[in-house]
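Hi team,

Below is the intake form for ASCH domain-containing protein from Paenibacillus tritici. Please confirm the fields before the structure is written into the shared record.

FORM ID: S-0412
PROTEIN: ASCH domain-containing protein
ORGANISM: Paenibacillus tritici
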Amino acid sequence: MKCLTIRQPWATLIALGEKQIETRSWRTSYRGTLAIHAGMQVNKAICRTEPYQSLLARHGFTADNLPVGRIVATSRLADCCEVTLQQVQQGWPGGNEYIFGNYTEGRFAWKLEEVVPLVHPIPAKGRLGFWEYPVLEEED
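The structure came back. Fields below:
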């Protein structure tokens, strides 16, 4: 299965359904199943700011108990579009989604759908860019 490593708290926000768009500096033509891997780094400072702190707390998380080095969810990468100046000026995408991403003109917005959090996140090392995990089944 194709995987993408994302730093915390953003990986968990995706798994919780609080973040539906991942922003990247690169475009992808890939569409399909994508596992969300929480990298080893946690941005603890951002976790202590709003709206991050409240959203994480609502789900029982803090900067100190976010899963790291684990596949935390599966999703479907449905679309990838370049962020335009016009979109930014019009306030797209708005709300928390805008706060959770980097919508600078020229970056790329990856639309994630059908996100399913894993009850038992799977330990994995992770890498830059897309990488493959041999079989994605939750471990008991």
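SUMMARY LINE: The mean pLDDT is 94.

Thanks, M.
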